Amino acid sequence: MKAGPKFFFWLLLILITLVSGYKFKQFFLDQDYTLLVNLDCNPSEAGCFIMDCSPEEDSECDTTPYKKLEMWAGNAPNCLLQRECLDFTCTSDDETCFITYCEDETRETWEVCSELVIQEPNDSEQPEEEISEIIQSSTSTQ
Amino acid sequence: MPSFLIAVQYCYDYLVNQISLGLLLYAHLPTAITALVFGIFIFLKTKKLNGAILLGICLSFALWALGNLLAWFGFLGSSLLMFGWSILDIWSVLFFLFSYYFLYTFIKEKDLPFWQKAIGFILLLPNLYWIITSTNLNTYDLNICEAYESETVLNYNIYFQVLFMCFVIGFVIKEFLFAKTIENKRKITMAGTGIVLFLFCFTSGIFAERVASLLDIVVYSYNVEIYALFGMPILLIFLGSLIVKYQIFDIKVFASQGLIIALIALVAAQFAFVHDEGGMILTAITLAIVFWIGRALIRSVRKEIELREHLEEANKGQANLIHIMNHQIKNYLAKSRNIFAELMSDPSYGVESEAGRSIIKSGFDSLTEGVGFVQQILNGSSAEKGTLVYNKNPIDLRHVVAEASTELETQAKEKGLSYEVSLEEGVFTVNGDKIHLKEAIKNLIDNSIKYTLKGGLVISLKKQNSAVRLTVHDTGVGILPEDKKRLFTKGGRGKDSLKINVHSTGYGLSFVKGVTEAHGGKVWAESEGKDKGATFILELPLA
After folding, report:
1. Could you tell me the CA-to-CA distances from B379 to B325, B326, B505 in Å, in that order?
2. Which of A82, B22, B322, B358 is deepest in the core (most CB within 10 A)?
3. Whether B132 and A19 lie within 8 Å, measured CB to CB
4. How far is B138 from chain A (nearest CA, A)?
5. CA of B215: how far to CAs of A109, B155, B161, B219, in Å?
6. How many C-beta neighbours within 10 Å does residue B170 have?
7. B143 vs A37: CB contact, 8 Å cut-off?
8. Cα–Cα distances in Å, from B198 out to B176, B248, B331?
9. Quick one: pLDDT at residue B401?
């Protein structure tokens, strides 16, 4: 072989080796990439995403509410990378960690937002016998 | 799948719901391993440029297949998936570039020009840039166990593949149309078809998906991509046929052995995804049949190759013997001629009578002709074998043609033929051996004179692009189509040529061809048939 092909051959080999080494460091050592994962979501705390489908019509339809997590993989715990601890929450000092709740601006066409379910104590929760006793006692005083 | 390999159970379950794991393994591993083994073996056996380029194709394909498999196997962990996927585009571009490089060197029988290599390298640079700057893959979605690819990078690679494939098809068609012999056309067709089919298999799936998305039709291209991997066995089959038929790598029996082994591996790999009893039995039967037929095929190929080698050896030995004999005969004839020359020139030998001098001169002329006859055979044989030594310098070919045509003018006129010489004005500098080129040109003209009984010759010289073209046109006996093939070969002559020229050696034109090709040129003949004259064209590159 003449010198011509060898020049490009060596240049190519060096570049590919450098690029491969760089990507190896990026993904294995630094874990320098963004991780997206859906976490468990409680509709009573915030608006959750729900898949807009019908379980009766589509066997793969999963209407479990979720919220979206986006964070730098280097900071993600192993259990999250293995998709196990889905109750994970961002720590306040992690600036690369974001949780997105469902709103009209953040949802996709195949998602709907769950209604915020607010739980407050009220009279209707009292048993009926107690209510009738209170009414009877108030009537007798009059 | 062994449980210790599954880092993310969710991704494993997600994958097996989408596609058969066995199919993934079957499509990727046997093809990659076969390609790699094939490429390494060819390279180690030949150590030629073509072998190195083929290794490049096989290696880049194997790395692409491995990277693609990692991209599917998200359950091994996100880092491995991201790493394998991120450098995929380098390998795919490389095996496209290497495929063209291989075709070029195979068809043109010379290395790719530097500027084309530079362009190929430039085409690779965008992918390298995007990989380093993480423009392509920087996000991993654990919900679908996939990475997000940049639209820009995807589009660049798709359109690169499609356009490059069109370029390769155009190149093959162009070379096919310009090929001089049927044999060359066949070689180009075979090599071109193999390479184009191989590239088409990769381009088709993703391109179809792009077109479908423009037309709002849903096509899931990644599954189609898996079947595209079978483009590699198609390429190997074509290459194997080229090796056996044309010995492009000087590897004989291995090609057929390699193909059979690859076929057995592919059939055996079906056990990876055939689980029912009936399927396994059928696969086992198929394997046994392939093994038995393959064994018979290898035996038959081996026998044929041994016979061919035996014949080649015998031919070579015979050719050497004839060459030695001719050389000895020429020496004896030359010695005898010198004796006659001495008798003619030196009166002290006592030859005084007119009759005596006449008979001595006749003997001298006859021996001179004999020496010339044998010398032509020797020269023709040496030129065809490539053993003639050339002393190349820049020469003015116009001057050489003028000299050669002047020396033969008398011979033509004595035969009553018209003799027209038309040389374009200018300097026609070629890098050549003046003596051998002049001899070759004289052979061409002499050949035309000998085979023209009436009419005449027209000798012309002109520049054509970056070459000089010498044309010798005659109104002679013409050339039959079946004789054209043998015309420039050693001992080749027309069917009835000895009737017209009893002194024909059959080596004159083979000498012309050998010398012309040694100077980087080409020579060929055109004729409309018997008694319709002939035109001999000799082209040489200008210096």
Report:
1. 14, 11, 11
2. A82
3. yes
4. 5
5. 20, 16, 21, 11
6. 10
7. yes
8. 19, 19, 58
9. 94
Length of chain B: 543
Residue of B nearest to A19 (CA): B132
Task: Determine, for residues B140 and A73 on separate chains, whether the beta-carbon distance falls below 8 Å.
Answer: yes
Check CB contact under 8 Å for B139 and A27. Answer: no
pLDDT of amino acid B119: 92
Burial class from Cβ neighbours inside 10 Å (0-12, 13-18, 19+) for residue B283 reads middle
Please give the single-letter amino acid code of residue A80. L
Give CA–CA dist B431/B96, Å, rounded. Answer: 37
Question: What is the rounded (10 degree) CA torsion for B344, B346, B350, B353?
Answer: 40
Distances (CA, A) of B161 to A61, B71, B114, B229: 37, 20, 22, 15
Separation between Cα atoms, residue A98 and residue A68, nearest integer Å: 8
B91, closest residue in chain A (CA to CA): A16
> Please, which pLDDT band fits residue A45 given cuts at 50, 70 and 90?
confident
* Interface touch B83/A24, C-beta < 8 Å: yes
In this predicted structure, which of A100-104, B163-167, B325-329, B469-473 has the lowest mean pLDDT?
B325-329
From the list B219, B62, B64, B84, the residue with the least C-alpha distance to B146 is B84
Coil, helix or strand at residue B94? helix
Contacting residues of A for B75, CB less than 8 Å apart? none
Q: Which residues of B touch A39 (CB under 8 A)?
A: none
Burial of B519-541, coded b for 16+ CB within 10 Å and e otherwise, reads: bebebbbebeeeeebbbbbbbbe
CA–CA separation, A114 vs A48, rounded Å?
5
Virtual CA dihedral for B161, B162, B167, B170, nearest 10 degrees?
140
Contact: A28, B83; criterion CB under 8 Å: yes
Give A-chain residues touching B138 at CB under 8 angstroms.
33-34
Helix (H, G, I), strand (E, B) or coil at B431: strand
Q: How many CB pairs under 8 A join A and B?
A: 79
pLDDT in tens, B492-519: 555 555 555 555 656 778 888 888 988 8
The answer to whether the CB of B448 falls within 8 A of the CB of B472 is yes
* Cβ contact, residue pair B78, A5, below 8 Å: no
Q: How confident is the model at residue A134 (pLDDT cuts 50, 70, 90)?
A: very low
